[in-house]
Design a protein that fits this description.
Blueprint (H helix, E strand, L loop, with lengths): L1 H9 L18 H13 L5 E7 L10 H7 L4 E6 L9 H10 L5 E3 L10 H13 L12 E6 L6 H13 L20 E5 L4 E5 L11 H9 L5 H4 L1 H14 L5 H5 L8 H12 L2 E5 L6 E5 L1 H14 L9 H12 L1
Parallel strand pairs: 1-2, 1-4, 2-3, 4-6
Antiparallel strand pairs: 5-6, 7-8
Helix pairs in contact: 4-13, 7-9, 9-12, 11-12
Guanosine-5'-triphosphate binds next to helix 6.
GO molecular function: GTP binding; GTPase activity
Protein name: Mitochondrial GTPase 1
Organism: Zootermopsis nevadensis (Dampwood termite)
């Protein structure tokens, strides 16, 4: 109801159009190589932990994992970045994921070592592996687990957080805010002594063809694709579209606006002025240089506010969730 009122007041867009869908394709060489390395190492692992972003629990998980790496081993799904996710529809999310074959789902926040989900993961691995057939590894005493997922969902952070929790040791896997930090399958990292558990970090792997444009944009918004591929102004525009559509207006204060608008040009211009960010550009008509608001800096600022959680916790998959839940129920 509130949504309809806001939509009729401000006439927000019903759909988001991207001109060039090719921008959503990203499968650099290290991903193909990484996938092959993962398949080769698979016989040495007992279990697979798939990490995904809890803000997009249904979007963007690589469907090829099931045929290539995760389908043949016991499998746990960890929905990470719980601190940024709106979990009001948690039970609906779990119902849809269970229908999809995920019976072991945990939520984690790698920024908080005391997060309750974190202490459930290793016991769940041990229980699951102990009750499964240990193909090729029946003689081994340790538990060896491969951590997989699309880029930037927090695979390396999860390994570091578990290692810190159980061994009190510092970072062993490199972490970064940009997608594609881990570029090949790494050596296994010990995260627990009793039981003896090793985790194997792997490069984030996207599906080569993201056919659903909005899904691609949600991945880009969550930084699973590198920003320059899609363009920060397009990501910012999608963010604005999504916030307006979902009646999330915290951006007004952050971007320096008096009222909601669906026009990204207005939002970025006001924000650039607020931040005092300008660029010296040659005037289109004359040859003079003039100062223009730096829209790119404002777009970065807007996206960063979203990724830091300053615009509020979000569930970007609400629409898919609503349609999937009605299918699960039918
Ligand atoms: N807010 C929040 N940020 C997180 C969490 N886990 C990881 N991050 C951040 O997410 C970014 C990506 O983390 P990584 O651990 O490098 O992700 P990855 O999946 O290993 O990335 P690739 O190497 O690209 O495959 C970093 O900036 C982390 O600090 C979390 O639970 N909450």
């Amino acid at each position: 109801m509130a949504q309809r009122v806001a939509n009729s007041l401000y006439n927000f867009r019903e759909t988001f159009r991207v001109v060039n869908k090719d921008v959503l394709r990203w499968f650099p060489g290290h991903m193909g190589k990484g996938l092959r390395q993962m398949q080769q190492r698979l016989k040495l692992v007992d279990c697979v932990i798939e990490v995904h972003d809890a803000r997009i629990p249904l979007s963007g998980r690589n469907p090829n994992f099931r045929h290539t790496v995760s389908g043949v081993k016991p499998h746990i799904l960890v929905l990470n970045k719980k601190d940024l996710s709106d979990l009001q529809m948690k039970s609906e999310v779990e119902a849809v994921l269970r229908k999809d074959g995920f019976n072991h789902i945990f939520y984690s926040n790698c920024k908080d070592s005391k997060c309750p989900g974190m202490k459930q993961i290793i016991p769940a691995v041990v229980k699951l592996v102990s009750s499964s057939e240990r193909y090729n590894r029946s003689e081994e005493k340790d538990f060896s687990v491969m951590v997989i997922g699309v880029p930037n969902v927090g695979k390396s952070s999860l390994i570091n957080a578990l290692r810190s929790k159980y061994l009190g040791k510092g970072k062993a896997a490199p972490v970064g805010a940009v997608a594609g930090i881990t570029r090949s399958v790494q050596n296994r990292i010990k995260v627990s002594d009793k039981p003896l558990v090793y985790l194997l970090d792997t490069p984030g792997i996207l599906t080569p063809n993201i056919s659903d444009t909005e899904m691609g944009l949600r991945l880009a918004l969550c930084a699973c694709l590198q920003d320059h591929l899609v363009g920060v102004e397009i990501i910012a525009d999608y963010l604005l579209y999504w916030l307006n559509k979902n009646n999330k207006f915290r951006y007004l204060e952050i971007m320096g606006l008096d009222e909601p608008t669906d026009d990204i040009g207005t939002v970025l211009t006001k924000c650039a002025v607020k931040l005092g960010k300008a660029q010296r550009r040659r005037d289109v008509v004359g040859s003079e240089y003039v100062w223009r608001p730096d829209l790119s800096a404002a777009a970065h600022y807007f996206i960063k506010a979203f990724r830091n959680g300053d615009l509020g916790r979000v569930m970007l998959d609400t629409q898919q969730l609503t349609s999937s839940v009605s299918l699960v129920g039918s």
